[in-house]
Amino acid sequence: MRVIVCDDQPAVRAGLVLILRAHPDIEVVGEAGDGAAAVELGLRLRPDVVLMDLRMPRLDGVAATRELTRHGVTGVLALTTFDLDEYLFGALRAGAAGFLLKDASADELVAAVRTVARGEGIVAPAVTRRVLGAFAGPLTDSTPAAVPVGLLTTREREVLDCLGEGLSNAAIATRLGIAEATTKTHVSRILAKLGLQSRMQAAVAARRVSRLDM
Known about the structure:
By secondary structure, this protein is α/β, with parallel strands linked by helices.
């Protein structure tokens, strides 16, 4: 797995790199200290994962994430804190593939990077609950305005419902009695049909559909 680490604090960035390089299946191919550098590196190196601090100079992590996903670099793992919801929801709208708390342990960091590299972007249960819980109340500007679920097959709708519960591909496969590879295909088709960029956006869309069906 090829990873770029982006954080404006050199000591924090060095610590993240040290943790990741201790694992032979992870290669840190670049480092960036601001969002503009993160975009340049991401577009040039096309890594599997971009570990992105959301608060950075020149170009913040939300804007950098938006630029990367717009150009097809979809494996952005956002570093976030609970007291900065504007960044958290901004990164969600920008298409971040996953969210990791800044106080995560080394093991959680490595697991999150591996999860995003596999294409499964909902990686921190606490963050997932916070994001999805926010949409249990009144609709906000962060909520997708329209969810054309009529475009989905019956099976794809079932998979979407599972995404709304924050389930992994393996868990979805077990629940629905299908192969994990088939689940991945369904998720990719759901994102394409609904015009979404990440599993987290799909999870929010599923919550919106569930509320509108009530």
